[in-house]
Amino acid sequence: MDTFDFTKPIAMGSDHAGFEYKEATKYYLEQKGYTVIDKGTHSMASVDYPDFAHLVATSVETGESCCGILFCGSANGVAITANKHQQVRAGLAWENDVAKLIRLHNNANVICIPARFVAVHLAIEMIDNFLTTAFEGGRHGLRVDKIACS
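Above: the chain sequence. Below: its structure as tokens.
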């Protein structure tokens, strides 16, 4: 069972639509004792989501961070962007069961949350589930091993 190495920080990022969620969950995680690297954005001014999704994905891909959390309006843009990185498995979650399954079955190392479609308390619950669920491996490991293109 694969779990995250919390001796490394968690990378977080968002666009303007997810900024308030990023700030709220960053505060929550720091209060729980996690170390967080905030890759931006740092205000509600309009920005381009790929700029921040690439920063989080690179942090995960290089091992600077153990995992990543991304927010944008629908979470689709950040998920698509993060998944361009070969060592990243970004999963879009909109409810707790999905947040667990992207870890359990897909070994996701980045969770993408749609800030315009879930309440902040649900986002925090999903992040807790994502961080505490281990990858099951087994038949799921065989499938995950087939994801990368290179």
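The chain has a mean pLDDT of 95.
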